[in-house]
Amino acid sequence: MITKVLMPKLSEAMETGKVIQWLKKEGEPVKGGDVIAEIETDKANVEIEAFGSGVLRKIVIGPGGQVPVGELIAIIAEPSEDISGAAAAPATPKPTATPAEAPPATAPPPGGAVPAMETYQSAPATTRVVPMAEVPQPVGATLPASGRVKASPLARKVASQSGVDLRLLQGSGPGGRIVRRDVEAALAAPRPAATPPAAAPAAPARPVFEIPPRPGAEYEDLALSPMRAIIAKRMPLSKAPVPHFYVTAEVAMDRAWALREELNGLEGQPKVSLNDLIIKACALALARNPGVNASFQGQVIRVYHRAHMGVAVALPQGGLITPVLRDCDVKPLSQIAVESRDLAERARGGKLRAQEMSGATFSISNLGMFDVDEFSAIINPPEGAILAVGSVVEKPVVEGGQVRVGRLVKLTLSCDHRAMDGAMGARFLQDVKRLLQEPLRLLV
Fold first, then answer.
1. Using alpha carbons only, what angle is made at residue 374 by residues 271 and 391, rounded to the nearest 5 degrees?
2. How far apart are CA 339 and CA 95, in angstroms?
3. Could you give the residue numbers annotated as active site?
């Protein structure tokens, strides 16, 4: 039986995939479930499995080839089967797109906007203006309150050329009109000596801090990685259309902290983290609040009956990936601890399987290790909610009229208001809080 190996869709946002390497060679036998290739997606490197048995007859897309989701990349068949029809797809790998070089900086176009923090000096004036103090003022001359000064055209021309202010002159012409001789008389009159301005007190000397020359470029443009590019593309599609609302609760973690230390002191048992306790608490709370374990699907609200938890993992090279822990509502805490640690390690190493990257019904993002008090996470569609976890911090706590030091953490639930309302989110968070403050319930 001929089995076509197609470029799989490994995440909601994935549009293309790149073949990193083939782990099976042409002519080698293949069984269903064998890992045959490693694919680079927008989020991580993922190993893909064969869905049929036989021989890897033809590799259509070689290492380095990048193709759209759903395109043929290889063929598995029996040695005697004719694969000529199935292999009609072109075998030439498509080159990986390289980020375009940033265009060189150019000067702003003439008449364009003035750059910020930059000033320009205006051109010096070429016409000499005589200060008013230098023009002799006839006794009793006053500036007209308003209106046009009466002056002959010739007087205006001479005054304009010589810089005389006609408003300061008294006219000798008909009706007090200023004529040429009035302007010439003002120019010929002796000018009072200018009084030198009083010397200003010397300002105290200030120390001048000189910045030495600093070598190197002032900034650097970094090309978007495939993951950062898809984050930039997808986040506006998540935050803008999805009407988020947020519910925050402060949880006492003293008993959960003590239980974790006690469990980690047992011989031969897996190490349990506080995040493992939160994962288990959320999974049990989702079983009690199925309306939060839901997603908006346009015309219906899909309510999930199993708790598949997406756990956000920060990658060393930058970016974020959310591998999926399945059926956390029925798994014991010890198994969740083992699987979550294994998933996180393989996510950072780019060794996740395709089925481990999709299918979450609820997600948890924990920034407690970065000393973050609290934050709000963005929902990852099509999920309906995500929990943001801050740091466990020691604070004064009033209990029974006494003040003691307690360990507290802030949990913020982001919800899709199309699928649930505030009361549903609050009840879910109440159950998570009760389970963490009575952590023996997580072991039952």
1. 30
2. 37
3. 417
Candidates 421, 435, 337; CA nearest to 385 is: 421
Query: Is 320 in a helix, a strand, or coil?
Result: strand
pTM here is 0.62
Beta bridge partners of 248: 412
Burial 29-39 (b: 16+ CB within 10 A, else e): ebeeeeebbbb
- At residue 196, what is the residue type? P
CATH superfamily of 234-443: Chloramphenicol acetyltransferase-like domain (3.30.559.10)
**In angstroms, rounded to a whole number, what is the distance separating the alpha carbons of residues 248 and 236?**
23
Classified by CATH at the fold level, domain 3-88 comes out as OB fold (Dihydrolipoamide Acetyltransferase, E2P) (2.40.50)
Which amino acid is located at 235 in the chain? M
Q: State residue 312's pLDDT score.
A: 95
- Check if the beta carbon of residue 183 is closer than 8 Å to that of residue 159: yes
Question: What are the residues whose beta carbons fall under 8 Å from the beta carbon of 83, sequence distance 6 or more?
Answer: 2, 57, 58, 75, 77
Amino acid at the residue 332: P
DSSP 324-354: EE--TTTS-HHHHHHHHHHHHHHHHTT-EEG
Q: What's the rounded Cα separation, in Å, for the pair 189 and 191?
A: 6
408: number of Cβ within 10 Å: 18
DSSP β-ladder status, 72-77 and 3-6: antiparallel
Task: Kindly give, in sequence order, each residue whose CB lies less than 8 Å from that of residue 3, ignoring residues fewer than 6 positions away.
Answer: 50, 51, 52, 54, 75, 76, 77
Residue 419 DSSP class? T
Residues 361, 387: Cα–Cα separation, whole Å = 12
The first and second tokens of residue 379, run together, are 């929902």
- Say if residues 3 and 30 touch (Cβ distance below 8 Å): no
Omega prior to 215 cis, within 30 of 0: no
Where do the CATH 2.40.50.100 domains begin and end in the chain? Answer: 3-88
Q: Report which residue type is found at 384.
A: G
How much is the average pLDDT of 110-130?
Answer: 38
Residues 6 or more apart from 340 whose CB is under 8 A from it?
273, 275, 276, 279, 311, 325
Reading the block at residue 313, the tokens are 């993992």
The DSSP letter of residue 302 is E
Specify the domain boundaries for CATH 3.30.559.10 within the chain: 234-443
Question: Which residue has better confidence, 154 or 358?
Answer: 358
Question: How confident is the model at residue 239, as a pLDDT?
Answer: 83
The whole-angstrom separation of Cα 241 and Cα 79 is 51
The average confidence (pLDDT) of the chain is 83
